Amino acid sequence: MRVCILVEGTYPYITGGVSSWIQMLIENMPDIEFDVVHLAPWRWTRLFGYKPPKNLKYIYEYLLFSSDYSKTNIAFDERELVRYVRQLIELKEERAKYFANILRATAGKHIDYLLLSRTFWDFLNDIYVRYFQEEGFPGFYWTVIGFIIPILGAIQALPPKADIYHSTTTGYAVLSALTGKYYHGGKLIVTEHGIYHREREIEITKSKSVPEVYKKPWIEIFKLISETAYAECDALTTLFEKNQIFQFELGADFRKMHVIPNGIDIEKFSTIKKVEHDTFNVAMVGRVVPIKDVVTGIKAFDALVKEVPNSRLYVIGPTDEDEEYYQRCVNLVELLGLGGKVIFTGKANVIDYYGMMDVLLMSSISEGQPLVQLEAMAAGLPVVVTNVGNCPEIALDPDGQSGFVVEPKDYVAMAEKLIILAKDKGLRETLAQNGRRVVSQKYTLERMINSYRQLYEEVLRNA
């Protein structure tokens, strides 16, 4: 069996939940050969964040803002392609089916020259006159080009032949995966850690660089891609049931849908020995980037220190992904007079730190089902998490509460929960015991791997 995993800007360069999940998936299925197709807007110059397992045969890198990755020399008539797109715009129903037909017709063919053709120019002018005449043409032109180029790049990123294409998003990665499915005849599995089209909708809606008039069309493009992925995939998985609501909204077929939670190596974390310490130590684990909202975590810690002076905050994770944001965090620490109390470790093994930690703080503004939370629970740490993704359901599991839940950005509430935990060792121990029990019952690595192995075998049996 050969499986091709398709990613956007994550594995093997960026550490984090999706990348760690991929590494575990490949490492724990040594009898299956894997390839990885990595799609990104630029060529990475940094080193791999993971050591490729022996059964990871090739890593293919494609640039979304490049072109001509097709393995064939067959061109596609630009007039026919523009005609398809015109018809797609006019459709009110079955857009996903029609878009899939376009992808099927263009799979493995050259379409990048479309942007240089007179046919495309006439089409663009027509769209401008019909829908955007109130806007300046140069802004319209470059906005549309910005929409189209990465889509064309993804469609032309023809993946290698595989039995199964396993896409980690319903965005650009799934366009490449669909091309592989249509051209090579493989099966398609889509796994959503977060709901891609919702994340893009939030991102675009908040964007100050995208003019208001173009936001709705761009959001609709991402919804169309997701809708097509749901319709055309052979299996659709997500990490928790709440995500399935959003998949249903775009027409996902419940017969294809599966919930496969993340899993961790319980023994690896449950055997960490506690280290004696005389401070109250708070851990924030993850990349120092805006989505993790480290700034709010630092503000919460500042309030904690005023009540519990012998506290320490360890920010455990890479600081080089967004150096401007990291510097903002450092400046805030200095401004609040927390020097010496806040420690940025850089990229590190959390196992080296968890033994002397008392609580995990997650101040993220967006999450799926974070491995960090599960690992901390296995290590015997109570948690304070934000009400995003699956974090609250895990922390407030009916079989045992392992921590507290607060709203994103609410550093006052975060501080209040940290203070409660700092002053009540018995409560910390109770929450820790609950967390260990819940994670060992529901979130084991063995369970996750077995579920994906069975799914791989199932989709191939249905070939």
Automatic annotation (TrEMBL):
Record domain Glycosyl transferase family: where: 268-437
Residue ranges occupied by any DUF3492 domain in the UniProt entry: 1-253
UniProt cross-references to InterPro entries, sorted A to Z: DUF3492, Glyco_trans_1, PelF-like
Entry's Gene Ontology molecular function annotations: glycosyltransferase activity
Segments forming a coiled coil: none
Residues in the signal sequence: none
Xref: Pfam families: DUF3492, Glycos_transf_1
Record PANTHER family: GLYCOSYLTRANSFERASE (PTHR12526), PELF (PTHR12526:SF608)
Protein's name in the database: DUF3492 domain-containing protein
Origin species: Fervidobacterium pennivorans
Lineage: Bacteria, Thermotogati, Thermotogota, Thermotogae, Thermotogales
